[in-house]
Every structure is written in C-alpha cells, then in structure tokens.
Fold these 4 entries.
Entry 1:
Amino acid sequence: MTSSTPASTDTEPTGGNPGLPEPSAAAVAKQKLTSPGASAAAFVIALLWTIPTFGLLVTSIRPEDDVKTSGWWTWFKNPTFTLENYNEVLTGSDTDLATFFINSIVITIPSVIIPITLATLAAYAFAWMHFPGRNILFIAVFALQIVPIQVTMIPLLTLYVDPPFGLPSLAGKFWTIWLSHSIFALPLAIYLLHNFMKEVPGELIEAARVDGAGHVRIFTKIMLPLMAPAIAAFGIFQFLWVWNDLLVALVFGGGNLEISPLTVRLAELSGTRGNDWQVLSAGAFVSMIVPMIVFLSLQRYFVRGLLAGSVKG
C-alpha cells in the first residue's frame, strides 16, 4: 500500500515569507525611510540645524548689554526679554527694515509666478505637442542649466541698460529683477515639469482627445490638477532662492535702495553696524520668518512633489 504525499514545490515566494506577496517598491522605500536609524539621523540633523537658529532668536530678544558681555546660552541662567531690538531694526532711521521687507515680497511673488506660468506651458508643449525641432530645442533648454549665472550678468545688464530697437531702459526697476530671476529659473523649471508630465499615462491624454478635448482643455483640466504637487515643490524652491538672494538683486537693482530687498540691507548693516549683534540678529530673524512660514505650511506639497514619479508600485 503506497501512501500519497503532496508534491513538494521547488519555488516559494521571495522575501522569506511563503504565501505573502512581495512588497512593492514604494513599501520598501517607505520602510527604509522610516527605520530607527533613519529617524535617529534625521533627529540629529534637525537638532544641529535648530540650535544655531534658536541661538539667533535668543540673541535677538536679549538687551544690548547682555549680548555684548555674555553668550546666548547664558540666557537660561538669567532670562531677560526685550522687543527693542526688533523695534529698532524695523523702524529705526538708519535701518528701516520694514520697507525692505515689503520690497522682498514685491520681488519674490512675481519672480515665482512668472517662471512657473511660462514653465508649465513650455513643459506641456515639449511633452505632448509635436513640432519640428522639439527635441533639439528641449536639449538646448536643458543645456542652459550648466551656464553659470555670473557669466550672464554683464550681457544681461547691458541689455537692460541699453535695450535694442530704441526701447526705454529698464535699469534700476523691479522689472529687471523679476525678469532676471525668471530667466535663471526657467531651464530647471521646464526640465522638472516636463519630466513630471511625461509620467502621465498617454492613454489618459488619448481618451481626452477622443472625447473632443483640445490642448487647452487637456492642459487646464487634466495636467494642472495632476501637476499641483510638482508645481508646489518648485514654487517653494524658487521662493526660498529668490527671498534669500543677494547677488541678483544687488546687480540688477543697480544699488537703488528703493527696490532693494532685505538681503541687500542686511549686508549693508553687517558692514556699518557690525558690532551691534542684537540688531543684526533681529534683522536676520525677520528675514527668516517668511521662508519658515512658507516651508512649514507647504511642506506636505513639497514632499509629495519631490516623490512624485520617483517610485512605482
């Protein structure tokens, strides 16, 4: 009498757990990013990054005598608090950072909106519209990223000061700073948004075309909603870069303090009032407030935009 035994299989699911499906690439990436080691490293980096910022905040709220006679860490032994430093730096006759704060906002907002608007349109054209020389033109746009900004400043400034065709000079106006920031941001913006658009399934575009949708409708009703995380991620990058910029505003602003941002004024204060640490720290913290608010309020869109299309499954 022979006993029947179940036939043994030579293969089993990978991963060491028979019967369980293999985890997706997204799950594996999430597991690595949320491991105890990664969490500990992130905590250490965040702590090292926060301590100087906290020291700057403490210095900005200490009286002048305390700032010049002891380090900021001694504040915990004898806490003292004053807003005089912020009052002086914002409304003082030789500082008046409130005016330059408004200038930074006036410079930053158009310098973010203009390149995003142009880049989304150009990225859609490169991704889903067919025209002669499309690939060559896209390679040329991509190659512009390797051109150093410093190389372009003198020719661009010359063009602003003495424009062709008898056009009026744009030197010393907000327009020059807006256009310059937009020009420098467009190659990277087009490249990033184009790569994101190419991840959209072609079947979705074909289905919209079958339903009678043209390029305008596809762009506004399909692409823009899908691109919101990528647009937000680049918008944060551009906002932080423009807000913290000194070189572009200093060169293309022509030294005109009426259109100079916070960074230009703070650079001047560091030279004229280099010993007034309480004033410089208050001014530096004022310049940090808006970027911190923007990043913290939009960080979920920032992370989604960075991870968009990075993993599948």
Entry 2:
Amino acid sequence: MTEPLLRIDSLHVHFPVGGKFFGRGRRILRAVNGVSLDLHEGQCLSIVGESGCGKSTTALSVMGLQAPTSGDILFRGKSLTGPDAPARKDRARIAQMVFQDPYASLNPRQTVYSSLAGPLHLHGNRTRSEIDDRVAEMMRLVGLLPEHARRYPHEFSGGQRQRIGIARALILDPRIVVLDEPVSALDVSIRAQIINLLLDLQEKLSLSYIMISHDLGVVEHMSDRVAVMYYGQIVEIGDWEPIFSRPTHPYTRKLISTIPDPDAILRKGAAERLPEAPPPEGWRFHPEDVSTPDVYAEPAPSELVQIGPDHRVRCRPAA
C-alpha cells in the first residue's frame, strides 16, 4: 500500500484535572491514549464513539489546535509537531475543518464574503479581483449564488450556512478536511443534501476526509475506513464493510446495534440483528459487560490484533 497522506503515530493527549496549588492532588486525564491511524489519499476515515471518548481531541490535534502530550502527526512523511513543525499559515493549507454547528461557526457581524475572503487576505499574494473570483467560485461549488456572498449569515438557512462553512474550509485548497459531526445539527431533510455535496467535492477536488461522528448511518454511507474509539483508545479499525457486517469488539457490537433496523421494528423488537460471534481469546473487555476503564490510570496492556485483511481489534496480549 502507498505511503499514507497523514499518519497519527502513538498520539497521547493528557490534561491535568483538579488539585490545589503547585499541582498537589492533581490527577491526569488521559483523553487520548496511544492512538495510531493512517489516512490515505482520497479516503474518508471516520472516527466513531460516544461523547467523551477522545475523538474530537484527536481531530483538534490534527488541526494543530491541541498540542499532543506525546506522539507524532506526519503529513506526507513530515512531522506536524515539535520544533520542526510548519508555521500556522502553512498548516492551514494542509488541513481545514467543517464545524458541527452552522449557526455558531460563522461570525454574525461579517458578511459571507468577508468570512470567505478573510483567509485569502491573510495568506496574501492575490489581487482584489482574484479574491472576488475565488469567493464566487467557492459559492458556486457548494451550490449557492455568488451574489449572495454579500448577505449576512442570519439570512441563510441551516443547510445553506453549512454549505458556507464547507466553502470556507475549502477556500485555501487544503488536502485534508476534518468533518466534525457535519450534519448532526441539521434537519433530517437537509442531511442527505450535505452528505452528497461532501461526496461530490471529495471526488471533484481529490479531498481526504477525517470524519468525527456518532451517527453510524452517516458513517456507513461516507466512509472508506472506520476507527472505533473507546475511552481514548482505538478498539477496532478496518474497512467499513467488515466493521458494519462483522463487528468483533463488544463495544463495536453495541454501537452497531443502535442503528435503527426497520425489520426489527416490524418484528416488534426482535433480538439484536447482529449474529453472535465468539471473540478472539483475551478480550480487553468482557463481551457481555463493557466495563468503564479508569481514564486517570495507565490502561491495561493490550494490542491491536489482525483478524482480517484490513480489520484489527484490541485485545490483551496472550499470557
């Protein structure tokens, strides 16, 4: 397989919590605990899990908005962390983010034109006419009229605002776009339009996505690969098809079982739709009781075990 576009290598992000003066009594919250992921050119890698599992902290680290405690993030083999990290302006051309809430992510005091043109002004080397042309191009690309760029955010619907957020993320032509719950704040009737827009843009512009989500229906539709995150660690990772059709880790199985099944509803609540499958020997968690680990303590030794061509699951190493 070719070299990944982005590699996250043993990423740790820890936060001090509580305590008194001079750090006495302070505990360490291990929000991200040894996460390693690869994103390949043109792929959509989804990181899924419940709130608080560390997926958004991982995304913020990729964006350079959260400094890692340890580990490395590499873009085309070059480190994005440490003393040799690229400048903030250079990093903005590598990765951009589409935020969850289109109502909060746009400045209500700025016109859409100002929001889109701002990054171009900061990065310079463009004339006024070139900036105008680029803003108009991006408005058309996301399905909006260029002349509407002179309006304010409150004059647009939620779906239109999210299109503007996508245009702003793409204005500098980044290679990676981080999608943080990109449709969760939208009406159900609008979600499919935004999902289809993102898929069209991915193909047209050769984009690579990292999507943060707990909506497994969206994940199944958009993803090439899926990483399941539980309390700061990846517990299962692979191509989307084996993750959804043959989930192996007990936590993954519990997540998949939450996807609404019309057939099960018609059967008036029939048992879980997924067939039972015996786990590999040495689960980190008991298959019938996914216990809550202590996020302040070092995790028990475990490793990702290969169980398919591109399908790994976290287990304890054999004794």
Entry 3:
Amino acid sequence: MPQITKRGRRRNGSILKSEDLCLAFGGLSVLTHIDFEVAPGEIFAIIGPNGAGKTSILNCIGGFYKPNRGQIYFQNQNISRLTPDRRAQLGLARTFQNIALYRGMTVLDNIKLGAHSHLKTGILPALLYWGPAHREEMALRREVEEEIIDFLEIEKIRKLPVAALPYGLQKRVELARALAMRPRVLLMDEPVAGMNAEETEDMARFILDIKEERDITVVLIEHDIRLIMDISDRVMVVNFGEKIAEGTPREVQRHPEVIKAYLGEKKK
C-alpha cells in the first residue's frame, strides 16, 4: 500500500478521555488502569496483539460495557453512566469488526437508520407522515444522498439490497451509516479487516478525508500495522489489558515494550 500523507496538526485539549479505566469479567481482568486522551481532529489508533483488550476499550467508550472502575469523558462531559443511545446522540458513532447491517434492506435505508436518533418529530406527526415529519424525512434523505453517499462514492449501489454487495462495499455502507449519525468522534473497529489491497487503500483515503473534510475525530483499532503507521497521528499500544506505550507512530515503533509484545523476548 502506498504511503498516504497526513495533513493538519493536533489541536490543544481533548475531545475524548479515559481515566483509570478498569474492566473485569468475573475474576478475569480485561483492562487495567487505562488512561488516554484524544485531541479534536486527530486519528488516534489503538493497537496490540490478539486478546489485548482493544475492542473492550471501544465497548467501554460506546457504553456497551460498564467498567468496574474509571471514568470516560466526551467533550468535557462525564459519560460513564450514559446509555449507548444517549452517547450516540451526543456525537459518538461506531463501526463494528463484524458487519452489523440489515441485509434485506437497501443501502439507502440502512444509511438513513443512522440519523434517526437525531430526528425531532413527535409520535403523532410521524405516524401521520405529514407536515414536519415529511419535511424532516426529506431533509434527511437529501443529506444522506447529496453528502454521505457522494462522499463515499456509492451512488451506483444506493438502491441495491445490502446482501447483494461484496464485503468491501458492505464495510463502506456501514461507514456511511455511522457518518449519518453526525458524529464528533467516530469509533472504528478493524475497518479494513478482510479487505484486499485496493479496498484497503480506498478505506484509508476515506478515513483521512473524514478527518480533514468532515472535521471528525477518529479512534480506530486495526491489525494492519502498515495502515496504522501511515494514517495515524498518535498510537496507543495495549497488551494483556494494560497500556504499554503511547506516542507518534515513529515513537511507538521504536518502543522496546512494543517490540517485545509483537516479537517476543530475544534469545540470549
């Protein structure tokens, strides 16, 4: 995959932060004292070996897991006790490692579902589908069709059922649905897993454009280390549920604990 140049600079302050995040299932410790801060407008990557706790961190941020200890802050608000849907309304969106789309629905309808948490029409007008409800639905459709579908270059497939699409395009549709939620921070769990080289390059380009053109902060997990080092502003490395390093891609690559986690102890 060719080198993709990052643009822009990290801003001061944080848009997302965790403090002393701890998670355990029964007697098994999954996360131990995880602290990190994500600056507005950056691509922040979380990497580590299989089973290191990466997805558990995203699940705690999104509200799917309740930490045993610690706090999570989003835009200076403590969201630790908020439900996943309330976090989504505030501006946290998520894509999943395993595609979570409605396969019998069209691409357009799947994407529109992402924005429904922001609709303001009451129950009665919505049932009648007239007046405010109709206008709001049409505005939503215009936003999806004119901005998101065009942005992700999926105009030709918008009327097709998701089940008819190849894997790479399904991943793009899931990304479109997340963008329809109008996020401030986008959480991405292995966005290029299972993709070929061309699909991976396209997704990397979209992630960079999401940051630069849509001013959305990205937090992502990915096993493709080359991709991570190409597009990320900062990287956090976890192993056995603990943070072992954090810094720029160059700093992390040279960190002895990271080398040890990925390559193992050198024989003497």
Entry 4:
Amino acid sequence: MSGSPGLTGETVNQPPHGWQQPPPGWQQPPPGYGYPPPPPPLPPKKSKAPLIILLIIGLLVLGGGGAVALVLYLDVNKDGGDPKRADKLPALCGNVSEAALAKARVTNPDGLGSSELDEGENSKRTICEWSQTKGVDGTGYRRATVYVTTNLNDTDVNEIVADHMKTRGVPVQKSLDGLGDKAAAVLVREDDSAITDIWIIVRKGSTVVQVDYTGWDAGVFTNTKPDVPEFEAAARGLAEAMVAKL
C-alpha cells in the first residue's frame, strides 16, 4: 500500500489525511469478492430538545417557513432503526463483542443477512450482519457486515483491496498496522450524497476477515458525512474483535 504519495484534505479528489489514491497498475483480482450495494433507511438517540424548541419558536414566528424547517428537521432526525431482534447468528459472529457493536452503533443482529457456508477444500465462509437498534444506536444510519473466509493460503490482501478500489464513488486506501498479519482499509465517500463506506481487510494466517461498515449522520436539515477518524475507528474495532479470537 505504500507505493503512492499521501494526499491531504477532505474534497472528492483529495482523500482524508493518511489515506492514499491507488498506485497505477492494479490488476483485476480473481472473482469472489463482490461489493454489496449500499444499504437503505435512517435512525437516533441524542437529545435534540433545545434545537426542537428553537424550531418551534421559528414555526410560531415565521409561520410557513418555520413549519417547513420543522418538518425537514424531524424527517432527517427520525428514528429509522428497527426494534431489537433476537436473531441467532453463526457461532463465529460471537467473536465480535457487544462493546465493539455498541461503539459502531450496530447492536441489532440481522439473521437474514448472516450465513455460514462450506466452500470446499476445508474452506468455510461466514457472514455476520448487524444494523441499528431503534432508540439505542443514535441518529443517522449504520450497518455492518463481517465476512470471514478460512483456508485462503494464496489470497493476498492487496488483491482484495484492488477489487474494492474498482467500486463506485471516489475510493481511497491505506495500510493498517497492528492488525492481523496484514491489513488495509478502503474508504468510499460519495461526492453527491452523505453515504460513507469503509472496508477493513485483514489476513491472519490463512483466514481473511473483511468488515464492510456503511452509514451517514443526521444533520440539522439533511444527512451529512460521518467524521472519518471516528468512522474508521468503529469499523476497525469490529475487525479487531473478530480477529482477536481467531
């Protein structure tokens, strides 16, 4: 990951500090590492009472304009999470601690998005998915999917990173230290929406862990992009929790 110069800034063509544009010459990796489409809806927690009071005052003072502002605010900050589910996930998903899930604001297990499959030659692929719990995980939107594939002796993290760099938006990448035998991250920030998506890719021995963490934050009247360091730390926490127990 170290062949390209670092860029600074937060614009579409300038990645966040510490992230890199891909070096030239990436080759198309073998198939099998698909890029799931970005997920849907919106959720909350943090008290917004003072701002709501101001908006109500605006409604009374400004009439129609205040009403529009109040409607926009309530729509963006509505609780879009789901009631707490009791879905049972594959046993391996239990590697991810409740603390890591709470930090990432994805405490709701999603059994429909989770599975465990034998892929032949003693290889197994496990998928663990979580989303937000209504009234618990805050405003905005968060979803996390963790993929764990065993017995991939010939798989290189660089190949998987290259695959994810061929996705929508403007992806940037960087290597990660202190995580497994080799690790990297690919961050995608849409230039025309608040959607932010980060992949953490880790190899530990012959096992590869991929964390796909997607979301956006609720602003006052519209959705906003999450803070990159905070977003990255939450995704890394999920990867660290999974890898620690492998």
